[in-house]
Write a structure and sequence with these properties.
The chain has five helices and no strands. The chain is mostly helical. The protein has one domain: Ribosomal protein L20, C-terminal domain (c-terminal domain of poly(a) binding protein), CATH 1.10.1900.20. It is rod-shaped and about 70 Å long.
């Protein structure tokens, strides 16, 4: 009883897969394990990708204001201002005037 329930649940998880990976237990089990490994890996990769995007956006916005990203981050750390890159990037995209004032204060 419990074995069939386990197989049924695993095959439900494999719903939407192609070929025999959706209907054969052994293939479905391998596909689900592989999918879980990919999901874990890509959750970590997504964090890296988003950080790169924030830094790129920040650098573009800062260069328009006549400064460089590395110089800006260095001056932030020297003045002990702790604002993360996500917030700074959103500020640069959504409120450029406020971002400009912030950059001038940091300089």
């Amino acid at each position: 009883m419990s074995a069939s329930k386990r197989r049924k649940n695993l095959l439900e998880d494999a719903k939407g897969y192609r070929w025999k990976r959706k209907s054969h237990f052994r293939s479905a089990k391998q596909a689900i394990l592989k999918a879980g490994a990919y999901a874990l890996r890509d959750r970590r990769t997504k964090k890296r990708t988003m950080r790169r995007l924030w830094i790129t956006r920040l650098n573009i916005a800062l260069r328009e204001l006549g400064t460089k990203y590395s110089f800006f981050i260095k001056s932030l750390t020297e003045k002990k201002i702790e604002v993360d890159r996500k917030v700074l990037s959103e500020l640069a995209v959504e409120n450029p005037t406020i971002f400009k004032k912030f950059v001038e204060e940091v300089k």
